# Entry
Amino acid sequence: MPAVNFKSNAVLDSLSLGDFELLAPQLRVTSLTQATVLLAENQPGDLAYFPLNGTVSLVAAMRNGACIETGMVGRDGALGLSLRGEHTIPPGRAVVCQPGTAAVIETWKLRNYMREREGIRNSIFACQATLVLYMHTTAACNALHRIENRVARWLLQTFDRVDCATLLLTQEMLAQLIGVRRTTITLVGRNFQQNGSIRYRRGRVELLNRSSLEACACECYEAMQVKPGSHDAHVTLQVNRRDNVEVLSAP
Ligand SMILES: [Zn+2]
# Structure
């Protein structure tokens, strides 16, 4: 197993050396397995997660079973935290979308560090503020932008947060996250395949042409490229952007 670099998470990377060296021994690594519910609705979580690779979707579910993604957290952010450093109940469900790994810490430990260390507290607050901005933009995007533009935005944001050019993604999953019928996703995916942006096969989506996908993405893709953990909301996040991705063979 390759060495784990906690600093591949932007929030942990934003800490001063002293704060990081204080927190790092308390972190442990856990696998993020696709479809695992990390935080359930109306139930306070015991762990805070700092993803190192992979993505977690924040999902709002309706009584009739319909759901939609309201936010995405990857190595750019963290979840299971609270704005006030108190034990709060998450607003929705947090589900692993793309598998990977995360650094985790018990929430009570993190709360203690937040009380004691201003730098840690500020990094967590900045991370939460960015997530609010992300969710704000997602709400507008979901209501105002065309589905193909939203799907292109979502794919790019997800590719930016994983270490490979292939996503594990069924059409059914994507339809639920975008909040549309599966048949709609089928049509959009077909168009993206025909213009050479992606290749879809057996539940795997390969990124073939980033520029083409970017040309289709709505403005929200750029708007949400901010750096959590930074006090400047307009700093571009250094994520895993693959401008010239080679085609990978799906197994
Ligand atoms: Zn949009």
The chain has nine helices and eight strands.
